[in-house]
Each structure stands twice: as C-alpha cells, then as structure tokens.
Design goal:
The structure holds two protein chains of two kinds.
Chain A (H helix, E strand, L loop, with lengths): L4 E3 L2 E4 L5 E6 L6 E7 L6 E7 L2 E5 L6 E5 L5 E5 L8 E8 L9 E2 L3 E5 L1
Parallel strand pairs in A: 2-11
Antiparallel strand pairs in A: 1-3, 3-8, 4-5, 4-9, 5-6, 7-8, 9-10, 9-11
Chain B lengths: L2 E4 L4 E4 L4 E3 L1 E4 L5 E7 L5 E7 L5 E4 L2 E4 L9 E3 L8 E8 L7 E3 L3 E6 L1
Parallel strand pairs in B: 2-12
Antiparallel strand pairs in B: 1-4, 3-9, 5-6, 5-10, 7-8, 8-9, 10-11, 10-12
Classes of the chains: A mainly beta, B mainly beta.
Chain lengths: 114, 113
C-alpha cells in the first residue's frame, strides 16, 4: 500500500517565478492538506482540499493556490515567488476532514528560491 | 486562537535515559492531540495520538496522556535509544476546524551512546 507521495523532491527557482508541487494521497484517502515548514520551525497549515474544493485556508496570501483532481491527487501552486517562500512543503492525506482522523505525511518537496 | 507550545531544544540525553518533552496547548474547542516525529531529511510520521481527555496514546515505548485540566500532552519514554534521535512535534486538531493541524515549534532530541 503506497503512502503519500510528492514530486519533485527538490526544486530551485528564482524570485518572481511560479512553481507547481504535486501530491498523491495514501490509497483510500480523499482529503489532502498542504503545509509549509520553514527551516527549524513547525509546519504551518496552508490549505485543505476535500471533494475537489478548498475547505479551509491558513494565513497565506493568494499567491498560494491549489487544486484537487477527481482521483484525489492535488497540486500546490505558488506565484511570484519570494525568497521567504523557501521551505519544505509537506502534503498530508486523511480519510476525511475530521479532527479525529490521522493525517499521513509525504516526504515533502524542498523548494529553494534564489 | 489555538496554539501549541513545546519545550525548547535541543535536548541531549545518554542512551537508556528517561525522556520528557513538555507540550501545552490552547484551544477553544475539544481538540485531538498528536505527537509527530521527523527524522533527518524526511517527512513527518505519526508517533501517537489521543482524541479525548484522559486518553493515553502510546507507540514504540513512547507515551503521552491528554490532560485537560492542565492543557498538556507531555511525551515520555522510559529508556531512549540512539535511533530515537529526531525532531518531535506536538500538534492539535480542533473539531471546529476539521482536520487542520496546528504544530508546536518542535523539539530536537539527540541521544548519545
């Protein structure tokens, strides 16, 4: 049973560029959440997708957008990259958007903005 | 708003020592509480969880008890191993914010042989 997978593993971009990160949830999961983890910090919630809709959003600007596909996979898009967007981006999946449900995390995509 | 506070690291212990990592939380509702572990260069793995007051989560020798009266969820292990060296994150998920995890800042643990 495959766990949560993310691609690419690493990415280097320059300021002002746009980036797309991808996530495939654990088999049987239909809820996907994205988190940003800056170096030495805890992950910060970006947004959550369920039934192809954004259900919740954290305190991130509109430059951060996402999408969920019918097969439950998801993309995170970041426009107009800033140096401060350099971080590990984590995708997590769960059976449903419930506080009781365990979220399973992927290995992350390390984004470096130069 | 909801928040999680962990004891600052790094924590350095000798093998077989007793481990406690303190975690306290603030929540408006009735949260579920989690401990996640992150090994170098990897994503987060769930270590244990508790979904209601007085529940004890346990896994791989680690334990934590959901204490509503002290709003705490301290992580303990009786005898640490070198392989336990990692960063540990305490997190909560409030039932009014279905599934959104709020993390503490993490505590780095280093276990020396």
């Amino acid at each position: 049973d495959a766990g949560v997978t993310q691609s690419p593993t690493h990415l280097i971009k320059t300021r002002g560029q746009q980036v797309t990160l991808r996530c495939s949830p654990k088999s049987g999961h239909d809820t996907v959440s994205w988190y940003q983890q800056a170096l030495g910090q805890g992950p910060q919630f970006i947004f959550q997708y369920y039934e192809e809709e954004e259900r919740q959003r954290g305190n991130f600007p509109d430059r951060f957008s996402g999408h969920q596909f019918p097969n439950y996979s998801s993309e995170l898009n970041v426009n107009a990259l800033l140096l401060g967007d350099s971080a590990l981006y984590l995708c997590a999946s769960s059976l449903e958007p419930s506080s009781f449900d365990t979220q399973y995390f992927g290995p992350g995509t390390r984004l470096t903005v130069l | 708003g909801n928040s999680v506070t962990q004891m600052e690291g790094p924590v350095t212990l000798s093998e077989e020592a007793f481990l406690t990592i303190n975690c306290t939380y603030t929540a408006t509702g009735y949260p579920s509480l989690f401990w996640y572990v992150q090994y170098p260069g990897e994503g987060l793995q769930l270590l244990l969880k508790a979904t209601k007051a007085d529940d004890k989560g346990s896994n791989k020798g680690f334990e934590a008890t959901y204490r509503k009266e002290t709003t705490s969820f301290h992580l303990e292990k009786g005898s640490v191993q070198v392989s336990d060296s990692a960063v540990y994150f305490c997190a909560l998920s409030d039932q009014n914010q279905g599934g959104k995890l709020i993390f503490g800042q993490g505590t780095e643990l280093s276990v020396k042989p």
